[in-house]
Amino acid sequence: MRKELTERERDILLKIVELYLKEGEPVGSRTLQKTYSLPFSPATIRNVMADLEDKGFLYQPHTSAGRIPTDKGLKLYINSLFLALGEKDETLVNRLIDFLRNEKAWDWDEILAKVLDFIQLNTGYIGFGANLTENLTVENISLFKVASDKILIVVNFQPDYVLHRVVRVSIPEGELSRISRLLTQKFKGKTLKQVKKELVEEIENLRKEISELTFRISSHILKSLNEVNYLEVQGTSNIVNMVSGDAERLKQVLELLEEKTLFLEVLRKFLNEKRNISVILGSEIEPEPLASISFVLGKFNVGYRSSGVVGVIGPKRMNYSEVIPLIENVTRALSLILNK
Fold first, then answer.
1. Which residue numbers in the chain have pLDDT < 50?
2. Which of 102, 302, 314, 319 has its CA 20 to 30 A from that of 194?
3. If one looks up domain 137-226 in CATH, what number appears?
4. What is the predicted pLDDT for the residue at 1?
5. Residue extents of the structural domains in the chain
6. Three-state SS across the chain?
7. What is 90-132+229-338's CATH number, 3.40.50.1820, 3.30.470.20, 3.40.50.11740, 3.30.450.40?
8. Which pLDDT does position 77 carry in this prediction?
9. Model pLDDT, residue 86
10. What is the pLDDT of residue 287?
């Protein structure tokens, strides 16, 4: 059986996609030949283009125009970039770590917000992140004094997940272990959803009856738990640059991005994949208005499990060769920070 693409077809296709992503115009055979100094005549290149069009990798918007990659052709180009992944950019990793330290971001919500700022600054696109974990049950809850007026709350879950938060509250040294035992007895073996429900009820119904200390600790634990399966999207104003000249489509895309149920479903699906970096074209998602944008996704880890996703939402015609390695190294830095 003949391979879907010959080596020559693949080489020409990748160069067409690369040039199209750079210039945004249909690529003609003569332009391609001159740009890359190809050892083929324009006529030979046109024949290869015609074959690629027949196979669904290119299309011709007008009879006299050059070719544009289809989503199938674009996906093949993107998959070729994944072969180069794995090269660590220590400069970028260290730059992000220093950025977070300088911004004094210690808690997850602060870290995520600053990471998304970093992504926006380096791409000009929309940054997003989600701390996604499923089927967690509480193993224990511990309190540790880290300063005279600060404690560290640590919630250990099974399987292999830890939440931690430093809060400003004064607790006598002898009370820390007692409160830790009480909290562990109360919530051990319960799911994340059950614990959140009980804490909400306790805070809402018993605020006048429970001590101020217990109330404050419970409130901080609830805030930490709410960060799990929490989605943050920053820089939606950048969508204007991605869907220019079409006000109705712009409105539809913004509405879909605000519908976080759909968005979280996309992220959960990616979290279950084996690869740590992926690109999902808008056309691969059901709503048609998303066809003009792309999602570049990367997983970060806490412990030994994939715990969340960060990435960018940008135009389908973005510089994937720069954005994909950037997201890969951002997730590497985020994993290092969250495991310290």
1. 1-2, 206, 208-210
2. 302
3. 3.30.390
4. 34
5. 7-82, 90-132+229-338, 137-226
6. CCCCCCHHHHHHHHHHHHHHHHHCCCECHHHHHHHHCCCCCHHHHHHHHHHHHHCCCEECCCCCCCEEECHHHHHHHHHHHHCCCCCCCHHHHHHHHHHHHHCCCCCHHHHHHHHHHHHHHHHCCEEEEEECCCCCEEEEEEEEEEECCEEEEEEEEECCEEEEEEEECCCCHHHHHHHHHHHHHHHCCCEHHHHHHHHHHHHHHHCCCCCHHHHHHHHHHHHHHHCCCEEEEECHHHHHHCCCCCHHHHHHHHHHHHCHHHHHHHHHHHHCCCCCEEEEEHHHCCCHHHHHEEEEEEEEEECCEEEEEEEEEEECCCCHHHHHHHHHHHHHHHHHHHCC
7. 3.30.450.40
8. 95
9. 64
10. 67
Q: Would you state the pLDDT for residue 209?
A: 43
